[in-house]
Predict the structure of Elongator complex protein 6.
Amino acid sequence: MFLALMTMISLGDPIASNAVLSALQINSRDKIISIKEKANADSNFIITHIIKQIIHEKNRLCLVNFHNPIEHYQSIGKKLGYDLLKAVDDGLVKIIEPIKDIVENIGCEDSYLQENKENVVKDLYFNIKDCVNALKTDGKIVYLLIDDLSHLHDLDIDIKHTLLFVHYCISLTDRDDVCFILNNHVSTHTDNVISKNLEYVADVNVKVSSLKTGKSQDVTGFLNVRRGNDLSCYHYKAFDRGIKTFRPGESIHHLYK
């Protein structure tokens, strides 16, 4: 029987001691990682745990943040044992905030609100490319992490130009030292089409979904991790200070040990 795993602040290898990272098993050979957040679920814990691993390994991160304020990532990071803003100061992390840039550049001809949507995605891509190139690798991996893609809809970007943007970002992984992580909330037909396209090219597909039967005091939702034909399935329970994961059918009493 599999023992339930509990998230904790790592004193050594976070993959070995952290339930979520142990389930994901992300490594440098995973060039493209797709995270699918189903409606009524929240995949943010996947993002914050992956950031933990990136910083622990002293790799580099270009975080394209559409979704949460940076203070959110910083607060969660502190609970998980890392300091995102310090990593920024140390030159390990660079952050792009397109929505914040929109507010600051309203009225500018080259803002993300321009009518030519192909130019919008190209401008965003070149901003990302500059960010990735500016991160000095010193033999380390540069992770491009987008959270989350569905917010391109808020900029009135259609499916054609969204897929074009994804293609541009994937092209960055032609570099041996660049990996691409994309979080995508899926609640509409358009979201699903984009997600299906990502599944075909991703080395790792992560899906976070809510319970089909509704809410439960013991289980928050499902976490599925697929590598090729290998599928690992977990239940997870979210607490104020962490996440516990366990296999479906495993005794819930393991959660309280």
